[in-house]
Amino acid sequence: MSADPEATQEFFRHGCFYSGDVGHLTEDGLLVITGREKTALNIGGDIISPEIVEEMLASFPGVEDAGVVAVPNELGINELHALVVAKPTVMPQALRNHCAARLAPSCVPVHYKPVAAIPRGAQGKIERQRWKNMPSPC
Questions:
Q1: d(Cα 21, Cα 38) in Å, to the nearest integer?
Q2: In angstroms, rounded to a whole number, what is the distance separating the alpha carbons of residues 83 and 113?
């Protein structure tokens, strides 16, 4: 018997452990983990996986690393902002076009901030709460 039944219920459902991982099965039965439920971002009512957007940004030539966060605009509605470690020749509009051609509209960042490095913890996970304090590269 668990000392904390509510916590146990959060991680065990129908007799199975629920990890909070988000993913899909390929046609040949391969399980692909694309992110974590807890990292999901609410953008204008759409729940998106930041990892998918980060992968798309990082696939653009000249981009070394990327991270995205939800930031409320002046109306209090979350918008997607991207931190990008890239060569100086990478232009925000080119990144926006790259994402817009491949992702749903709610997954396309509206702001792009060049940074020297993405803030990551010891495990390599993006520390999204630190993004505002990131200086632009010299």
A1: 9
A2: 5
State the pLDDT confidence band at 59, using cuts at 50, 70 and 90: very high
pLDDT given at position 110 = 94
Phi-psi region of 62 (alpha: psi -120 to 50; beta: other; left: phi over 0): left
pTM score of the predicted model: 0.67
Q: Report residue 57 as tokens.
A: 């940004």
Q: Which residue has the tokens 């899909």?
A: 24
- The second-level CATH assignment, the architecture, of 40-133 is 2-Layer Sandwich (3.30)
Query: Of residues 5 and 119, which shows the higher confidence score?
Result: 119
What Å distances lie between residue 102 and 10, 63, 110, 115, CA to CA?
Answer: 34, 16, 15, 24
Domain segments of the chain as ranges: 1-36, 40-133
